[in-house]
Write a structure and sequence with these properties.
This protein is mostly helical. It contains 17 helices and no strands. The radius of gyration is 21 Å and the shape is globular.
Length: 362
């Protein structure tokens, strides 16, 4: 596990193909899928439970919209009624193919990250929460974790002892023995559905001079076994949500990129163009930016770069669409969003976004 990095592009492609194949097989004989069926929809237990987690996360978003400032949602009566409502819904999960496949794609991505880069998984997941009690947040998600359980226990223990998130993860990773057998077993289960090739052992694609933003893609991999579940277990996945500054980037962040931005297009243009159809499609400009960002990329950009703020993401993409060059679009992002959300401009998510935008101006 150590020394392996996920290739984000390969991971997204694999997740889409895997989800499409599973969905095609299942829905060729079923009109919809239930909660009980989700628990065993793939041979990989972690994927199945992450589908439930994604479903629950979506439900949390819906509950927030449902709440009104005109009523007391902290009232015990209201809370109990809401619990009963949610339990009833959990017994009546019914999802059709067009809505289920995107959930499955997200679940496969999360499984691969947890399997091969667990430190990254926990860092991203817990950083999304506004709760000061990270150990409580981690415990609330424990029912979904089926891979690297000893590591989970290490992190939970460190957080419970008052360590900050980064220290807790670092200490736990240092103590955790690689679950190589678990990785091999999970990869084997995934291979039964679709050949897996998402990890490049410390290898990177040809890098660009701009703070390694566009082409250095990271690696990923996959999850564990299978198991049946009772309705009570499914019910436990759904429960009412509880209500609970980002560090500013230095003022010279734009200066950090000015020199490299000017040479970026030159670097791309100097590359020898492949004569294959695939290469031609890869370099073809994107006429509409948002329509050419797949669901996994959008999920990653919104959650990792815009802290879940869909409105800011949509506005940013519209503004980039109006830019007349790649340079001006990067300038816009740096000034309006990189500072606001304290982006690490060497992060994979930023590289992936810049790569998509670069194609827009080819």
């Amino acid at each position: 596990m150590h020394g392996s990095k996920l290739n984000q592009e390969a991971t997204n492609t694999y997740s889409q193909s895997y989800a499409a194949k599973i969905a095609e097989e299942f829905f060729s004989q079923n009109d919809s899928i239930s909660g009980q069926q989700i628990i065993a929809v793939t041979p990989v237990k972690q994927v199945n439970f992450f589908v439930l987690k994604v479903l629950f996360d979506e439900w949390q978003s819906e509950i927030k919209k449902f709440k009104s400032p005109y009523f007391d949602y902290k009232s015990e009566d209201v809370n109990q009624s809401l619990k009963a409502f949610i339990n009833t819904l959990s017994k009546n999960i019914r999802i059709e193919k067009e809505h289920f496949q995107p959930l499955l794609e997200k679940a496969v991505v999360s499984t691969l990250v947890l399997l091969y880069e667990p430190a990254k998984y926990y860092s991203q997941e817990l950083s999304k929460s506004n709760s000061a009690d990270k150990s409580r947040e981690l415990k609330a998600n424990s029912k979904y974790i089926k891979l690297h359980k000893p590591l989970f226990d290490f992190i939970f223990q460190n957080l419970s002892e008052g360590n900050d998130l980064n220290s807790a993860i670092h200490t736990a990773m240092a103590s955790y023995k690689d679950g190589n057998q678990e990785i091999e077993q999970t990869a084997s289960l995934l291979e039964k559905t679709l050949p897996l090739n998402v990890v490049e052992e410390q290898e990177t694609v040809e890098e660009l001079p701009m703070p390694e933003p566009l082409e250095e893609l990271e690696e990923i991999e996959i999850s564990a076994p299978e198991e049946s579940a009772s309705q009570e277990e499914i019910n436990n996945e759904f429960e009412p949500i509880e209500e609970e500054e980002v560090e500013s980037v230095s003022d010279n962040i734009n200066q950090q990129y000015k020199g490299d931005i000017k040479t970026l297009n030159q670097q791309y243009e100097e590359k020898e163009k492949s004569k294959t159809v695939a290469a031609a499609l890869e370099t073809k400009s994107l006429s509409n930016l948002k329509n050419n960002i797949n669901i996994n990329q959008r999920y990653m950009f919104v959650n990792d770069l815009f802290e879940g703020n869909d409105k800011d993401y949509e506005v940013a993409m519209d503004e980039v669409e109006e830019c007349d060059s790649f340079d001006s679009s990067v300038e816009l992002l740096v000034q309006n969003y990189a500072k606001k959300y304290a982006w690490d401009m060497n992060a994979d998510e930023v590289k992936e976004l810049l790569k998509v935008i670069f194609k827009r101006f080819r």
